[in-house]
Amino acid sequence: AVGAGRRHEARDHVATGLAAALLLGVIAAPVGQGVAELLPRIAATEASGRAAAGYPAGRQGGDPGIQPNGGHRGGSDGEGGKRNHAVRMLGSPVFLTYVALREVRYGLGDSRSPMVATLLGNATNVALDALFIVGLEWGVAGAAWATLAGHGVEALVLTLGLRESGLGRVRLGSARALARVGLPTGLQFFVEVGAFALLAALLAALGETEMAAHQVALQIVHFAFLPCYAVAEAASVLAGQAMGAGRPALVPDLGRRALWLTGAWGGLSMVVLLLLGGPIARAFTDDPTLIAAVRALLVVAAAFVVADGANVTFRSLLRGAGDVRYPAVVTVTASWVFTPPLTYLLGYRLELGALGGWLGLLLEIVAGAALLGWRLYRGRWREAAARTVAANEADLQPA
Prior knowledge:
Blueprint: H1 9-38, H2 46-57, H3 87-90, H4 92-107, H5 112-135, H6 140-160, H7 162-165, H8 172-206, H9 208-244, H10 250-282, H11 288-321, H12 325-337, H13 339-349, H14 354-377, H15 381-395
Helix pairs in contact: 1-2, 1-4, 2-6, 4-6, 5-6, 8-9, 8-12, 8-13, 8-15, 9-10, 9-11, 10-11, 11-14, 12-13, 12-14, 13-14
């Protein structure tokens, strides 16, 4: 709509997106509670399982009447003092409202407002983490409360921005357009995250060291990956605007420019991970066994960080242009064909542990990048994108 010069349509997309966010948030809350009850069954130890279940439920994960230092808390509120308020999962509508408003601002070409909202939200989160986890000793329950408060600040900041852009009404045509683009992508993320969750479950069953190495390495890799994700998000917005302006020939050129950026950053990250993997791992732990496991994972991460930038860039460009089904099918297929089976084969059968799972991830990312890049530069995406644009145009015509 922005690329076509019809910014007034954005207001209806905002209203429709917020309605979808609230609906999905209401659905996610009870589903998440059910999943939380299953987490202790896949954890390596009973204590870690209780802690994992306590986070989405917003309650203490350990013995509810015992402080970490051995003392007792006062003010029991039932079940021996459990704070079972389901705060993290019941906060799903708040979080998804923030996500909807963030994506709207991106589509309008405004990346500054989401940045400000995130900085304020993270500052709130960190301050309340210190209070709830350290000061009040609420453990993972405190982390859940602090995270919810941070998301609330983010949503509030972006909601205030609606005074400038305005809020339209929920239209059936806008809802159909949202579903046409959003459903394949949503199903892709859902099934892809399912494969990643299965990876985590398989590693958790191997032992706490393997799971801890996976989590530590994942946090480190985020620093290498998130700038690439930001470039891909920008490329997606620009691809959508190019299609709206009737200039699809710009999309492959956007891909080349984005690849230069993600490739340069990925190359730098690869060098850092290879040369400084040990010192970085020691910043998280002083356990020599865990440090060795993390370093091994970072070697694999150094190999796939460049391919991961290409993967997310190609996927975002195709989705932004309106070719949503092919990236969804490729991503889902690669995530299930490579990662869980190879985690079992290499991690369990060959006893490589978390390293086996990360080798599966490496093959998944490389295969996905190759297939998505072929789609983009062979021009096979144009027909699917044109169909999406034409269908959206028809849905959004005034009644």
